[in-house]
């Protein structure tokens, strides 16, 4: 019989192992978000060198205003993706909410902006609730459910609008001013996006129910066994995503002033791209709100930097595509490396 | 050790029954769990032990009967109810969240809080560290659970039970994948939990562990309660007799076969980190069993032989011809068939019809001009289903609707119809009832008599001992023993599999 290799390691070496593995893993996780920040910084520097006007006040202002809406959507999407689901209906919900709030303001111009925001939020929450109910009780994958509601919500929007368009001159000036004005020179849209990021980020990091969302995405079966109310949390995640898409619809209406039934078409893919590039794993369980927000900022910056650099529209899409593949590829390679190294280290086999 | 009759049981299972469809998984089972005692629950696979565990975990509700805690009936509607009642279950496969830290895994849903209901990470890590100190292990509470060894994962599960102040702790085959040192550590922990007044329910197939750890034993067979006795009133032989409940020879109708030429040769097969330097030969007409503990690498070896998994080095020859690695198609052409371990995931397309499943390996020869036309497919499927005495109502029914035993027959039919020279079966009778088990065994025996070389991976020792001409024992990825039928006993195989005989 062969001599048995040392099997279970004693306490001391195993601590070292654990520490080493942990710091390595921690480093990679930190590097994951650091990577996006560096990419963003590099892009800004290069673009500014080519065209210094890229860093002018107006240009930056336009950039962050455009990013604010995507960031709000990305936060909602991240919450859903962390639970190992996906919400493809956000673009349609945004369009529907924008049109609903636009119609409301057209009919009752005296409605305060806060009420408009709340109406959009509530409207989106209802759409999200429908998604959540279908996913939870229909036992259908979220991809299919929300692909369906993407078309359903869009269809309702077209039916409702009937080809009509709400123009800026029909909207109350106070609402339009909200789209550009702010406090101490910081536009409201940005303040709202920041608040959403901070609240959601804090919630997912430090609240029990927030951690349970990660647990559900990390191992759904174990989540059930641990007594986590998986159905209720799933429902809540979709309601949050829908509500934020509704809120983004109001921001969209305020910023652009012109709303028709096709507002926000195709936006869901940009949002999913932002979340994935931001390091939220598509299979759930890991990633952060900050990462998703930075991912959204990066994609928006690419969108406005490439024209400044004189790069073709076609290349913009190709670059976004390449970034997604790079992000997913990095995650897979890193995961495989970690798994392989742990497997070799933990195994008792002498090879 | 004297076993005074303790007072009221902490938890009592009272005549519970549970059926799934027409299949009765558990009927009229009762036993008490006393505080400060370890209670063994034994029975063959499929005897209904895991159904009992799932009832205690709040995953299944009994159709009739009750579970009583401190003399009061409790309704366990969900895992949360069971946890709230102080019942913690440690599963054979630990159920952790790989992306979250070890401390979060322990305290999920019950994390210590600070102001504003925020999670107090520092307190959480400190408390987790305190549990690990108590358990005598060094695991960093802040590291992710991904990559922990099975033993460490089980320690995390035990820390979870400690943090729940669980009074009833169910351990479902906790030692199946552990090495000797790790088993000792687990036993020390179990002993201290017991001394602390908890009631432990311990499920294991290893009698030396049961006699060493437990005070009382409940035996189940085919879903029914057989007996509950203090352990020192029972011999191991008596326990086995009650578990099996029938003479072993009818369950294992083994023909004596004179082995023919070597058909399958495996030489130096290695896959880094999984198994190393595995070599063996199988002759025509021989049944060779691969035995060992769960996680010893048996399934991985046969999957590499068949080419589903890649191999890093080594050679596989069929009839002297070398087989390309990583190609199941090449293996099938050479006459090798693999009936996988997990028939639902790997062996069948559950939603497809019975006939489609049976003919899926033979589409090429059944098709005319590349099309499956006429009744050839149906005739072929009907023929094979009849040969294996498969019970079905329509050949067009989805195969998922059949019972486990009949599903297994469909998988066998699918592969036997290729008329293999080498048949590899991985856990051929897992989760199927005793009657069908005997049929599957008879079938394997007949095939061997017809000159097929059979490699059988099995975790059921009686099956290994009853069916195999030779037993190859694996431990931790290595082939550690080869025992001819005459020398293979429960003791010799288990000693080799656990490595405990080597040191003694």
From TrEMBL, chain A:
It is found in: Cell membrane. Pfam families: BPD_transp_2 (PF02653). The chain crosses the membrane at residues 34-51, 63-82, 88-107, 114-134, 140-163, 175-204, 235-257, 269-302, 314-335. It is a multi-pass membrane protein. Keywords: Cell inner membrane, Cell membrane, Membrane, Transmembrane, Transmembrane helix, Transport. Part of the ABC transporter complex LsrABCD involved in autoinducer 2 (AI-2) import. Probably responsible for the translocation of the substrate across the membrane. The complex is composed of two ATP-binding proteins (LsrA), two transmembrane proteins (LsrC and LsrD) and a solute-binding protein (LsrB). This is Autoinducer 2 import system permease protein LsrC. It comes from Pseudonocardia xinjiangensis. The lineage of its organism: Bacteria, Bacillati, Actinomycetota, Actinomycetes, Pseudonocardiales.
UniProtKB/TrEMBL annotation, chain B:
Residues 11-247, 257-501 form the ABC transporter domain. The keyword Membrane applies. It holds the Pfam family ABC_tran. The keyword Membrane applies. Keywords: ATP-binding, Cell membrane, Membrane, Nucleotide-binding, Repeat, Sugar transport, Translocase, Transport. CDD domains: ABC_Carb_Monos_I (cd03216), ABC_Carb_Monos_II (cd03215). One of its GO terms (molecular function) is ATP binding. This is Sugar ABC transporter ATP-binding protein. It comes from Pseudonocardia xinjiangensis. The lineage of its organism: Bacteria, Bacillati, Actinomycetota, Actinomycetes, Pseudonocardiales.
């Amino acid at each position: 019989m062969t001599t048995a290799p040392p099997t279970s390691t004693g306490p001391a070496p195993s601590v070292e192992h654990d520490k080493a593995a942990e710091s390595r893993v921690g480093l990679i996780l930190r590097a994951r978000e650091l990577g996006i920040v560096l990419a963003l910084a590099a892009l800004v520097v290069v673009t500014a060198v080519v065209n210094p006007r890229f860093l002018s006040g107006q240009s930056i202002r336009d950039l962050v205003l455009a990013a604010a809406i995507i960031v709000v959507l990305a936060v909602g999407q991240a919450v859903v993706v962390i639970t190992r689901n996906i919400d493809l209906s956000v673009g349609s919900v945004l369009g529907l909410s924008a049109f609903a709030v636009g119609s409301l303001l057209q009919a009752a111009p005296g409605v305060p902006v806060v009420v408009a925001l709340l109406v959009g939020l509530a409207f989106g929450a209802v759409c999200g609730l429908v998604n959540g109910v279908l996913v939870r009780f229909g036992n259908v994958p979220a991809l299919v459910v929300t692909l369906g509601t993407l078309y359903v919500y869009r269809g309702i929007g077209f039916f409702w609008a009937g080809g009509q368009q709400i123009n800026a001159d029909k909207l109350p000036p106070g609402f339009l001013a909200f789209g550009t004005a702010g406090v101490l020179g910081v536009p409201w849209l940005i303040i709202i996006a920041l608040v959403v990021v901070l609240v959601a980020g804090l919630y997912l990091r430090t609240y029990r129910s927030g951690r349970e969302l990660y647990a559900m995405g990390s191992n759904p079966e174990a989540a059930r066994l641990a007594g986590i109310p998986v159905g209720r949390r799933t429902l809540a995640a979709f309601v949050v995503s829908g509500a934020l898409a509704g809120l983004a619809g109001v921001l969209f209406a305020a910023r652009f002033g012109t709303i028709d039934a096709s507002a926000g078409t195709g936006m869901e893919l940009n949002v999913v791209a932002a979340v994935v590039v931001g390091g939220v794993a598509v299979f759930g369980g890991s990633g952060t709100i900050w990462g998703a927000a930075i991912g959204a900022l990066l994609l928006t910056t690419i969108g406005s930097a490439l024209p400044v650099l004189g790069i073709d529209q076609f290349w913009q899409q190709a670059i976004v595509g390449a970034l997604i593949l790079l992000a997913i590829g990095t995650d897979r390679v890193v995961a495989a490396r970690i798994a392989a190294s742990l497997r070799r280290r933990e195994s008792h086999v002498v090879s | 050790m004297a076993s005074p009759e303790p007072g009221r049981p902490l938890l009592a299972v009272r005549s519970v029954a549970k059926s799934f469809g027409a299949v009765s998984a558990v009927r009229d089972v009762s036993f008490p769990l006393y505080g400060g005692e370890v209670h063994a629950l034994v029975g063959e696979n499929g005897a209904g032990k895991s159904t009992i565990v799932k009832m205690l975990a709040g995953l299944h509700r009994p159709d009739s009967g009750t579970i009583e805690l401190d003399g009061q009936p409790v309704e366990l509607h969900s895992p949360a109810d069971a946890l709230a009642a102080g019942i913690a279950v440690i599963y054979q496969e630990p159920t952790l969240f790989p992306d979250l830290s070890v401390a979060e895994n322990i305290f999920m849903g019950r994390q210590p809080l600070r102001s504003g209901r925020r999670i107090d990470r520092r307190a959480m890590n400190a408390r987790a560290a305190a549990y690990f100190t108590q358990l005598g292990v060094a695991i960093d509470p802040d590291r992710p659970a991904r990559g922990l060894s099975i033993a460490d994962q089980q320690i995390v599960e035990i820390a979870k039970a400690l943090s729940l102040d669980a009074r009833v702790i169910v351990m479902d085959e906790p030692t199946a994948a552990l090495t000797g040192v790790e088993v000792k550590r687990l036993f020390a922990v179990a002993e201290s939990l017991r001394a602390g007044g908890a009631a432990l329910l311990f499920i294991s197939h290893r009698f030396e562990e049961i006699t060493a750890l437990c005070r009382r034993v409940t035996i189940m067979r085919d879903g029914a309660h057989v007996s509950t006795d203090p352990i020192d009133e029972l011999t191991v032989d008596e326990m086995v007799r009650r578990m099996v409940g029938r003479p072993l020879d009818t369950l294992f109708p083994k023909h004596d076969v004179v082995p023919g030429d070597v058909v399958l040769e495996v030489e130096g097969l290695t896959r880094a980190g999984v198994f190393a330097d595995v070599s063996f030969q199988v002759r025509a007409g021989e049944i060779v069993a691969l035995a060992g503990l769960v996680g010893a690498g048996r399934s991985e070896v046969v999957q590499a032989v068949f080419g589903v998994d890649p191999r890093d080095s080594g050679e596989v020859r069929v009839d002297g011809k070398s087989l390309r690695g990583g190609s199941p198609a090449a293996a099938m052409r050479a006459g090798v068939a693999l009936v996988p371990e997990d028939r639902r995931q790997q062996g069948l397309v559950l939603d497809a019809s019975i006939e489609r499943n049976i003919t899926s390996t033979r589409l090429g020869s059944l098709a005319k001009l590349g099309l499956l036309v006429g009744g050839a497919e149906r005739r072929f499927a009907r023929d094979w289903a009849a040969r294996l005495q498969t019970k079905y109502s329509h050949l067009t029914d989805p195969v998922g609707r059949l019972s486990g035993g009949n599903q297994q027959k469909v998988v066998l039919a699918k592969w036997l119809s290729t008329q293999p020279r080498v048949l590899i079966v991985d856990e051929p009778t897992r989760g199927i009832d005793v009657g069908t088990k005997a049929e599957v065994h008879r079938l394997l025996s007949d095939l061997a008599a017809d000159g097929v070389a059979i490699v059988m991976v099995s975790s059921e020792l009686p099956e290994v001992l009853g069916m195999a001409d030779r037993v190859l024992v694996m431990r931790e990825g290595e082939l550690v023993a080869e025992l001819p039928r005459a020398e293979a006993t429960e003791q010799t195989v288990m000693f080799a599999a656990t490595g405990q005989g080597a040191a003694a």
